[in-house]
């Protein structure tokens, strides 16, 4: 599924961690890596000094000492324009299957990528986006335990296929969790009935996702239903499962039975202690 991986870079620690993750995934999936530097058309560039290399080439060379790219295809590219637009356009033009980005970039006159750029790409990309924190531990990356929140919606279900693709390649355990958000419900008979209904829907969601993952060859799947504020409950689930990765759809249901919303995915991108892969539903509207 992941044959071509894009790493937008500004040379920051976030970009370095993203490149490490991309190299690991490329080795596992025999994928090609594209490293893209975007020259912000709204920012000055007269302080750049890369000798004879482009920014992307210089970045790749700087990673050679601590990232093993032996046998991998790594292609540098440079664009100029609005950063998130160029990232998305490049991904479309080169048939990228996965974008791996740092959540923080350099600030000041040499900035290319900012946290807000990552969030825009997360909201708008047609392919999965894997967000990696700048302060993530450097070195070998492994995804042995993957957390997959689900509410049974089309947005949440969009995350099942990439989760299965990752887990089946690495023999990872997938931890499925569905969060029942009961904050707006009072403690009365009617509310109890609604909670029971929500729990039933949540149980169906994790069981159906488990069946799909099993059909994709994922052998180790665990399911759970929890209660509370969705993104906080998911953060707790990360700790409980000792998860290495969260995969989440960027859109969920609306109304009384909503558990996951786009804002939940974005909060996780900002607060999760582990990388977060967001998968945008195919029918989501384009805000560009």
The tally of strands reads: 10
CATH architecture term of the largest domain: 3-Layer(aba) Sandwich
Shape: globular
Helix content: 25-40%
Order of helices and strands: EHEHEHEHEEHHEHEHEHE
Low-confidence sequence ranges: 46-50, 105-114, 252-261
Main beta sheet: 10 strands, mixed
Indicate the proportion of strand residues.
15-25%
Number of helices, where a helix is a run of at least 4 consecutive DSSP H or I residues: 9
Radius of gyration: 20 Å
User: What is the CATH topology classification name of the largest domain?
Assistant: Rossmann fold
How many domains, as an integer? 2
The CATH homologous superfamily of the largest domain is named HUPs
* Quaternary structure state of the chains depicted: single chain
Strand order of the largest sheet: 3-2-1-4-5-10-9-6-7-8
Give the overall average pLDDT.
83
Q: What's the CATH class of the largest domain, please?
A: Alpha Beta
The first-to-last residue Cα distance is: 26 Å
Structural class, by secondary structure, is alpha/beta
């Amino acid at each position: 599924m992941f044959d071509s991986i894009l790493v937008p870079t500004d040379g920051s620690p976030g970009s370095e961690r993203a490149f490490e993750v991309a190299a690991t995934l490329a080795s596992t999936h025999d994928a090609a890596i594209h490293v893209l530097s975007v020259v912000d058309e709204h920012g000055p560039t007269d302080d750049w000094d890369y000798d004879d290399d482009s920014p992307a080439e210089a970045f790749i060379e700087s990673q050679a000492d601590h990232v093993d790219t032996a046998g991998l295809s790594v292609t540098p590219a440079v664009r100029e324009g609005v950063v998130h637009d160029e990232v998305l356009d490049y991904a479309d033009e080169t048939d990228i299957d996965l974008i791996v980005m740092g959540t923080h970039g350099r600030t000041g006159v040499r900035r290319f990528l900012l946290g807000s750029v990552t969030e825009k790409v997360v909201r708008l990309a047609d392919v999965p986006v894997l967000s990696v924190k700048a302060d993530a531990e450097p070195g070998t990356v492994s995804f042995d335990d993957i957390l997959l929140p689900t509410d049974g919606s089309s947005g949440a279900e969009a995350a099942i296929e990439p989760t299965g693709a990752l887990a089946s390649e690495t023999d990872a355990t997938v931890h499925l969790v569905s969060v029942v958000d009961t904050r707006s419900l009072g403690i009365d008979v009617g509310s109890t009935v609604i909670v029971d209904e929500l729990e039933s829907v949540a149980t169906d969601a994790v069981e159906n996702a488990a069946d799909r993952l099993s059909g994709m060859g994922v052998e180790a799947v665990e399911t759970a239903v929890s209660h509370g504020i969705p993104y906080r409950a998911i953060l707790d689930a990360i700790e409980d499962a000792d998860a290495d990765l969260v995969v989440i759809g960027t859109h969920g249901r609306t109304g009384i039975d909503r558990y996951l919303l786009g804002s939940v995915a974005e909060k996780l991108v900002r607060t999760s202690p582990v990388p977060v892969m967001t998968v945008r539903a195919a029918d989501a509207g384009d805000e560009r």
